[in-house]
């Protein structure tokens, strides 16, 4: 195997650029322009994998995206490893490292091949039928074992080291595919001056033209004509040309997803370039020129290495100068097999025989084959093959006029070509939700009616003759440009094409073989190891819908999405059920057209860029102090500020006591803030919140509760009235966007007559909470124009002035139960003011505290957190906020719902406190509460724990809970059953510290 | 990804919009006069048609305004978009040709 199958001349490889690569650790040589598959074939290697279920040796079947067998893992290291790549699409580069998959210990000796001997025991639906019992063993034993034995590639062992980017693009005409139809379409559209994008999955434009030996267009060899067409397109700046770019998905409103492989083909990669680029192209019109896929023929043992599609063999020989064998048997259902035979014969391959399923072969191509002395046998089938790791014989037998099959003759060969006819590639058209129609003459589904603005051209709609394909492409290209609004029309242009036309004859279903069907494995779906017998079995077991048969047998469900198998499976079902193909239906063509990396969808959204991160103006200071942070929606919030040697519990206890005994400082900048301004601002607030706002004086604050229209609490926050027509509204940290959206909704759509403006000011204000008995002493020296005395600034009032020379809205407000202030300053100056306050607080031992301490302090006071005590089913009264509902108000959002009987029914869950009988035990938040722990399972549950902490100031654990009829149960003992035992608790008022609120005044 | 024509800004990708449920369900002027059944119907009962559906969208990453749209739920194509507060256009499904064919 030393390159013995490389032709001395011809092909599109660059013999001046030899490349080295390894496959399963063995070193091989190839040339620039090779794919991994063509280089292996040139080295005489056909065995490239083991099959999914039976572990049968498998070879290269195709030369493109339809490859079901030759799946390889590629990558020199785990961080650059990609499994399940089609060797037929992997471009060779120097140093490429590839390995086969699904074999152990080696490709040529695979222990799993015993499955093949056990094949009679592994029919369709085997797993469903067999591994039923015991049920538990399915997840613990059967599934892992089956997955390990029947698998394809393996996941890489390291994180992907590559970069992926994403790109939006717009054009008038997107042309998908650059064979003759696509090139002609692009030429036509480009000429009109509109923006054109032409993409092709291959490294070179030209499609099938690159594999033609004799075809001539406008006097040029086909490949040269393609090069000239591309050169013409390159001169136009309204054309974008994308090679190595797969159109993998057709999304609504003409959005097409393209995956561009930027660096995979390079031995040495430019680190500035991404590995792949996602193009989201919005095209006014799309021309699909996706070509056709050759069908294999379903006959016994059609899966041995060396059995391949006829056009693929022709491509290897003509395009890659790689001879796929020495002696070939061609099994054909149309003239395409003859074309391949003639091309291979020209490359020096002996054609042992052509077996033609048709009773007669009369066209020009069969005539040429006969004239060349090739043994042409019509009405002939192939009944089987021999050979262990490579085909060595094909068994040819005559089909008698009565349909029976005669005695087989063994024909020695190392290559068997299958030419079952062309299947138009309608994947993208179907993804666009277009309707397919059955064409009886072509024995194929072709596009019938469109939904999106697209049109198909050439072989993908069943037009195969080269001249007709070019004309069709040009037509469709100019029509697309016109439909997209091109103001100049494409000049009429005709193409003089001369090529061997293979016609459109073909065969679907399983070829006759006359053997005992129980022992003949005729593969329909190579990748999922589905045979004709499996599909017939499914029909015998009563399956009728093709969608059910697909799932039961798994035909067409592999990564190739049935590109080669769907039509033959349909044919077999049609034959078995004696029902026309059209009555059986068609399975759904799903995206992606070929497997697409996760990386291209993730783009830059990984690691630190996975989600946006919001930080407050004080974040840097907290980080310098060694704060531990927690995520609160997208915000990073300081969770606690540990001293050396402190765990969270110790730090929080220290922070809590510091606030209760002297003063603490807390970054509340994440609070949502909305400025509600306008002559009707008070009326708007009246309608949005439960509270009464009309009488709230300027300079006063009020705690507001917001309901949804269904009457349940959705948000809360302190609101300041800064002027008659101006409210400073605060919301919960996570609720800010939701509240603003809801306010906008009502303002715009229900009450557009109200003259009010809403502005999000969350990011404009830094909010510094200074809380504790010494809070006033800390702030007093820093403020100007604000009297902080209790008389001038009582609890729940606001003042404006300056602090440290910075303008401020200073609120006297407390979420701790202590004397407290919230200093709002412009965000840019937040850290400066914070540091000044911190310095001024030094004599009082001012202590920065985080969100955990904030939670404990408010729980000690029984202040709820919306989303923690409430769960979207709590009314204001349920959580002890009945006082905040303006009873005299005629209407507000949610008021009518509160009037429903069930909203005040007895037995609703109500906010209460819980004290464990053992003060050291801290309940788990979310734990369920029962009245009688001896009740039989399922135990009736009476509530759940919503907040639970160890409270340093109370000296024991405390908890808040929502309990059915809770306020009437105060004093009762309830129980919290936990895995470690049942915890008895006493129901209490939900306020554990300073119930009279005397500390608010310092 | 759909293309949605904001009546104020023009055609934009779906990414810029947020769906807002069925359109033309006005909040009663005085909810207190409604029976529980009537109020329940206002809160929860929504059409789920196969075909044209009048629905609200908000151009949240654009002008921020709510508007209404007639979308064919079978084809996902829009027959019309129109400002909030204006009546539903007299368009049937055959008028759906803003995108597609």
From TrEMBL, chain A:
Keywords: Oxidoreductase
GO molecular function terms listed in the Swiss-Prot or TrEMBL record: sarcosine oxidase activity
GO biological process terms held by the UniProt record: tetrahydrofolate metabolic process
Residue span(s) of domain FAD/NAD(P)-binding: 172-440
Domain Aminomethyltransferase C-terminal: 909-994
Residue stretches making up the GCVT N-terminal domain: 618-889
InterPro entries, A to Z: 2Fe-2S-bd_N, BFD-like_2Fe2S-bd_dom_sf, FAD/NAD-bd_sf, FAD/NAD-binding_dom, GcvT/YgfZ/DmdA, GcvT/YgfZ_C, GcvT_C, GCVT_N
Residue ranges of the TM segments: none
Domain SoxA A3: 521-603
Family: Belongs to the GcvT family.
Protein name: Sarcosine oxidase subunit alpha family protein
TrEMBL record, chain B:
Database matches in Pfam families: SoxD
GO molecular function, one term: sarcosine oxidase activity
Name used for this protein in its record: Sarcosine oxidase subunit delta
GO biological process, one term: tetrahydrofolate metabolic process
Region (Disordered): 80-101
């Amino acid at each position: 195997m030393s390159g013995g199958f490389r032709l001395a001349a011809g092909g599109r490889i660059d013999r001046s650029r030899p490349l080295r690569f390894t496959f399963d650790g063995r070193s091989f040589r190839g040339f620039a322009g090779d794919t991994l598959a063509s280089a292996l074939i040139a080295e005489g290697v056909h065995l490239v994998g083991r099959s999914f279920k039976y572990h049968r040796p498998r070879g290269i079947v195709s030369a493109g995206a339809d490859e079901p067998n030759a799946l390889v893992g590629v990558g020199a290291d785990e961080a650059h490893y990609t499994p399940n790549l089609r060797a037929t699409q992997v471009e060779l580069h120097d140093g490429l490292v590839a390995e086969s998959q699904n074999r152990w210990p080696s490709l040529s000796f695979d222990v799993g091949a015993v499955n093949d001997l056990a094949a009679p025991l592994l029919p369709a639906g085997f797993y469903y039928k067999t591994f039923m019992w015991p049920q538990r063993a399915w997840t613990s034993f059967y599934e892992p074992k089956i997955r390990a034995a029947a698998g394809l590639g393996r996941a890489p062992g390291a994180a992907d080291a590559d970069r992926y980017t994403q790109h939006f693009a717009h054009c008038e005409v997107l042309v998908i595919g650059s064979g003759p139809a696509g090139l002609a379409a692009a030429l036509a559209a480009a000429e009109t001056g509109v923006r054109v994008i032409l993409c092709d999955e291959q490294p070179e434009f030209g499609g099938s033209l690159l594999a033609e030996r004799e075809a001539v267009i406008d006097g040029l060899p086909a490949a040269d004509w393609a090069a000239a067409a591309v050169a013409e397109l390159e001169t136009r700046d309204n054309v974008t040309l994308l090679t190595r770019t797969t159109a993998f998905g057709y999304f609504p409103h003409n959005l097409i997803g393209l995956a561009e492989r930027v660096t995979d083909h390079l031995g040495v990669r430019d680190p500035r370039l991404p590995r792949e680029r996602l193009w989201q192209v919005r095209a006014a019109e799309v021309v699909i020129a996706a070509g056709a896929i050759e069908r294999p023929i379903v006959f016994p043992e059609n899966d041995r290495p060396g059995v391949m599609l006829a056009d693929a063999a022709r491509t290897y020989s003509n395009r890659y100068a790689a001879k796929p064998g020495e002696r070939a048997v061609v099994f054909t259902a149309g003239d395409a097999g003859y074309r391949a035979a003639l091309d291979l014969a020209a490359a020096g391959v002996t054609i042992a025989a052509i077996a033609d399923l048709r009773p007669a072969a009369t066209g020009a191509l069969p005539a040429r084959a006969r004239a060349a002395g090739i043994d042409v046998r019509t009405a002939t089938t192939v009944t089987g093959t021999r050979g262990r790791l490579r085909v060595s014989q094909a068994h040819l037998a005559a089909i008698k006029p009565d349909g029976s099959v005669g005695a087989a003759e063994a024909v020695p060969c190392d290559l068997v070509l299958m030419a079952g006819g062309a299947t138009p590639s309608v994947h993208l058209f179907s993804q666009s939700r277009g309707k397919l129609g059955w064409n009886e003459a072509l024995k194929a589904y072709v596009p019938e009616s469109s939904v999106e603005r697209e049109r198909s051209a050439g072989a993908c709609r069943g037009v195969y003759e080269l001249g007709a394909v070019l004309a069709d492409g040009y037509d469709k290209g100019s029509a697309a440009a016109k439909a997209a609004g091109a103001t100049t029309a494409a000049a009429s242009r005709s193409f003089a094409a001369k090529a061997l036309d293979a016609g459109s004859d073909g065969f679907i279903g399983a070829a006759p073989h006359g053997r005992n069907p129980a022992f003949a494995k005729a593969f329909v779906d190579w990748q999922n190891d589905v045979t004709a017998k499996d599909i017939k079995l499914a029909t015998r077991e009563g399956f009728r819908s093709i969608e059910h048969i697909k799932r039961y047998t798994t035909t067409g469900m592999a990564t190739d999405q049935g590109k080669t198998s769907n039509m033959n499976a349909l044919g077999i079902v049609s034959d078995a059920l004696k029902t026309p193909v059209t009555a059986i239906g068609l399975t759904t063509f799903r995206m992606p057209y070929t497997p697409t990396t996760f990386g291209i969808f993730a783009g830059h959204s990984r690691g630190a860029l996975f989600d946006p991160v919001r930080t407050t103006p004080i974040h840097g200071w907290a980080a310098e102090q060694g704060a531990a942070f927690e995520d609160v929606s997208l915000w990073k919030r300081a969770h606690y500020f540990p001293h050396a040697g402190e765990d969270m519990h110790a730090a929080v206890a220290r922070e809590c006591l510091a606030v209760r005994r002297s003063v603490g400082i807390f970054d509340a900048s994440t609070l949502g803030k909305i400025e509600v301004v306008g002559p009707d601002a008070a009326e708007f607030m009246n309608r949005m919140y439960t509270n009464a706002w009309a009488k709230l004086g300027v300079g006063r604050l009020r705690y507001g509760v917001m309901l949804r229209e269904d009457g349940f609490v959705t948000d809360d926050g302190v609101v300041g009235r800064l002027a008659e027509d101006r409210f400073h509204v605060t919301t919960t940290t996570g609720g800010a966007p939701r509240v603003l959206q809801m306010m906008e909704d009502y303002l715009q759509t229900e009450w557009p007559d109200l003259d009010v403006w809403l502005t999000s000011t969350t990011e404009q204000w830094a909010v510094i909470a200074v809380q504790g008995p010494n809070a006033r002493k800390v702030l007093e020296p820093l403020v100007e124009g604000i009297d902080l005395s209790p008389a001038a600034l009582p609890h729940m009032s606001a003042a404006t002035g300056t602090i440290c020379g910075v303008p401020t809205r200073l609120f006297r407000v407390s979420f701790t139960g202590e004397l407290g202030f919230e200093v709002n300053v412009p965000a840019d100056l937040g850290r400066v003011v914070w540091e000044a306050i911190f310095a001024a607080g030094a004599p009082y031992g001012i202590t920065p505290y985080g969100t955990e301490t904030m939670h404990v302090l408010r729980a000690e006071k029984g202040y709820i957190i919306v989303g923690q005590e409430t769960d979207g089913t709590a009314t204001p009264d349920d959580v002890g906020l009945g006082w905040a509902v303006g009873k005299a108000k005629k209407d507000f959002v949610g008021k009518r719902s509160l009037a429903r009987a069930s909203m005040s029914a007895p037995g609703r869950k109500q906010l209460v406190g819980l004290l464990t009988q053992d003060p050291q035990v801290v309940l788990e938040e979310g734990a369920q509460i029962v009245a009688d722990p001896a009740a039989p399972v399922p135990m009736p549950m009476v509530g759940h724990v919503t907040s639970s902490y160890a409270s340093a100031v109370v000296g024991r654990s405390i908890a808040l809970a929502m309990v059915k009829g809770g306020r009437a149960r105060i004093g009762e003992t309830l129980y919290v059953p936990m895995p470690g035992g049942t915890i008895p608790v006493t129901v209490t008022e939900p306020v554990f510290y300073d119930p009279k609120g005397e500390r608010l005044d310092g | 990804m759909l293309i949605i024509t904001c009546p104020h800004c023009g055609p934009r990708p779906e990414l810029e919009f947020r769906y807002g449920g069925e359109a033309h369900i006005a909040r009663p002027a005085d909810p207190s006069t409604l029976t529980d059944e009537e109020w329940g119907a206002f809160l929860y009962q929504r059409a789920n048609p196969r075909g044209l559906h009048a629905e609200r969208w908000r151009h949240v990453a654009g002008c921020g305004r709510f508007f209404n749209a007639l979308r064919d739920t079978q084809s996902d194509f829009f027959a019309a978009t129109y400002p909030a507060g204006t009546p539903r256009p007299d368009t049937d499904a055959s008028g759906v040709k803003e995108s597609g064919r």
